[in-house]
Amino acid sequence: MATALQLPAASRMSEQLSARPAAGSIDIIGLRSLLPPLLASMEKVETGLIGYSRDTTGKQPLLESLWAVHHITAALGALRLHKAEMLALELERGFLRLLREQVVAERRNLTMGGLMRAIKTLPAYLDHVQRVRIDTGRGLEPCVNNLRRWEGERVRPRALFFYMQLPEGCGISGGAPEPVAETIRRSADVLLAPYLQGAKSVLGPNQNLDSVRTVARIAHKMHSLFRGTVQERFWLLLVGLCEAIAAELVEPDECVAQIFKAGAFMIKYAREHGSAADPAMDYDSYLQQMLYYMASCRARPLYVGHIWQVFGIDDSTLDNAERGLIHNDALIAALEGARSMLNGLVDRLQAADLLAAIAGSSEPLADAAAVIEDIRLRLIAAEEIDHAEDMQAASDLLQQLFSGRFSDNERRGTQVVMTIARAMVDTEIALSNRLRHNGFIPPEVTAFDHLEGLVATTCKQLTQIQDQLQQSRDPQALTACCETLAGIVEALAFARLVRETTVASACLDWLRGAGSSGEAAADTAQLRTLADALVWLTLYLERRLLDPVVDPLVLLETAEQHASWLAAAAPAAPQPGLPAMSPAQGEAPEAAASTGENIPEEFRQVFLEESAQIIERLQALVPAWAAGAVKDEQLREIRRHFHTFKGNGNAVGLYTLAELGRDVQDMLDRVLESPGPVANELPALLRELVAALPELVATCGGAGDFNEATVRGLRSRCAGLR
Fold first, then answer.
1. Are residues 27 and 100 in the same domain?
2. Nearest one of 463, 431, 422 to 449, comparing CA atoms
3. Is 166 within a domain?
């Protein structure tokens, strides 16, 4: 079996795929008959990957998965589903690299997540092919190219995955005279040599405009000779492609090279067979690839503009081709699988004796780490990288819990349990929201969407306070209003709705002072101002609930104005009989987040210890990244440390530091997606960030004053690095 699994033929197929044309339509009957065993094989592949993720030292699950994928690849090739075959080939390549240990550490994790995504995508794509009866390639590009990136391979051109629906006979001249076979043979014989020479120069390192013009003239001649045939479209699009290359609108890549080679094959075939179409040539495939390049042109010179008109290309063609990608079905499947497993694990955690777990008894949840690993793989497949990292952190904490590390410190163990539970709950909320939006959440909605329940409850409570103040303002009623409003302040602060918290706090402060002095019992201007502030705050929150995308800031600003008037009124200090304001409720959220005064000492020490470890690692990583060759891998590790720092800050209520970590993480995400000139400024900024962290963290332990200006400056520079 070991010899067979080296797959020499499959490996060569990967390199020849775009060059090897294939004729014929989709064999729907064959696909439908082979689909059940294909799906069964995909289940074996997934089982093998999960088995390997639980124990990366064992190779048998990889061998079983690789063998199953090999059969899938062969079946797809036999069915002439060459775009689906590309994905299967990348699956083979990925499993083979895992087997040979050619990807390790972070790249291994990314590769495993990419394999899981591909496993979920392929069945959905085959269902799509059944429905449309075309091997469109839609939804496959992210799977194929992400795997190739993580494995260190050059990505495949996007043109290979492009497809647009064309009307019957589009681009073929109607009523054209019958091509003269002998004329075509003689012309092809004369044109072949200059075409080969010109194409070689266009594709070579010393490209010149004369070579491009030579190929364009020959393509124009062939277009005239083949009017009224299926070959006509190829030559018309090749003229446009040459024009786009000459205008530097298209950069020749491996796909363009195969198109030029196909032109040479067509001229050779015409030299022998005249006007007849080559039955081995997949004209439609090359047509779609050239249409991609035409649609991607930022400008439209003469022939490109003509092609846009003939084939109905417009500014939305590329966007439309990418809408409704079939891999969304796979994404939904991954999200639902992860959520289901997560809910089951949460139920087990709630039912288990956690005190026994803290004491080191791991029996009730012995396989919890394995379940979390399954969840993590599905999260990576669904592109929930942050939550996948949170699950990895939860798994590490569970293992520490079960090892008895916290057996002599029950409070610390309880904190760890709460951290694990919070990570799982936050992840479950995120998954539920994505599923509710069919896998996609607009960025503007995401942040507010998670707070929907809290905001709805707050709106009801604010309305109750307003009604209560209208009905009665006796001491008992005022006390109840203060208690409700104090809860609102606490909830808004916990949700880090800073401006909303400030408004509610000002209202609470005034109401407490006015209640003790008797001012609240009379219909004064300040009381009406209080009512207006509460009304405007309620209207703002209600409007956000109706449309999270549009932020009605004018309503919030009006509420803030009324709150400032209340603050200026300086009510008397609260007297006994009314609930006293706790420090966490009374102080500005920024102050509490900066000083950490209200953090329990044990939590503070844990934060300081873990931050020290993060800083130590960053101090080693940043210089190594600046001087090293494996830039992306090291930068992802740096990003992961800042992500952890952000999570730790949020967990203990140090929101200022958490926001700094988030801004750095966002900045690194932008750099990783599109490095460009931005990356030139990054080393100095990262060094400054790492140099500033020790002092900022130390102030949370009582060493000196927190420097807000430093944090603001660093956050501003991170946001400005684009």
1. yes
2. 431
3. no
Question: Do 209 and 290 sit in the same domain of this protein?
Answer: yes
Look at residue 381 and give its three-state secondary structure. helix
Hey, is 275 helix, strand or coil? coil
CA distances from 655 to 354, 549, 689, 714 (A): 29, 24, 17, 15
Q: Is it the case that residue 636 has pLDDT exceeding 70?
A: yes
321 within some domain:
no
Tens of pLDDT along 216-261?
999 999 999 999 998 999 999 999 999 999 888 888 888 999 999 9
Quick one: pLDDT band at residue 189, thresholds 50, 70, 90? very high
Q: Give the pLDDT confidence of 471-522 residue by residue, as tens digits.
A: 777 777 888 888 888 888 877 876 667 788 889 888 888 888 877 776 666 6
Closest by Cα among 445, 439, 164, 166 to 319:
164
How many Å apart are CA 448 and CA 326, to the nearest integer?
Answer: 28
Name the residue range of residue 57's domain.
Answer: 4-155
Task: Report d(CA 540, CA 557) in Å as an integer.
Answer: 9
Residues 307 and 346 in one domain: no
The four Cα atoms 663, 666, 668, 670 give a dihedral, to 10 degrees, of: -140
Q: Which pTM value belongs to this model?
A: 0.51
Residue 551 in 3-state DSSP? coil
Same domain, 660 and 705: yes
Residue where a domain stops, chosen among 286, 312, 338:
312
Compute the distance between CA of residue 719 and CA of residue 685 in angstroms, rounded to an integer: 12
> What CATH number is attached to the domain comprising 218?
1.20.120
Strands, E, within 274-391: which ranges?
Answer: none
Query: CATH no. for residue 634?
Result: 1.20.120.160
* Closest C-alpha among 721, 603, 611, 604 to residue 673: 721
Which residues make Cβ contacts (< 8 Å) with residue 109, sequence separation at least 6?
A: 380
Cβ–Cβ < 8 Å for 490, 589: no
Q: Cβ(139)–Cβ(327) under 8 Å?
A: yes
Calpha distance 256→233 (Å, rounded): 16
Q: What pLDDT was estimated at residue 234?
A: 94
Over the stretch 18-44, which tens digit does the pLDDT of each residue have? 333 333 467 888 888 888 999 899 989
CA distance 653 to 590: 10
Residue closest to 653 by CA, chosen among 606, 598, 588, 702: 598
- The domain boundary, picked from 312, 339, 363, lies at 312
Q: Name 659's Cβ contacts closer than 8 Å, sequence gap at least 6.
A: 646, 649, 715
The residue written with tokens 């942050």 in the block is 386
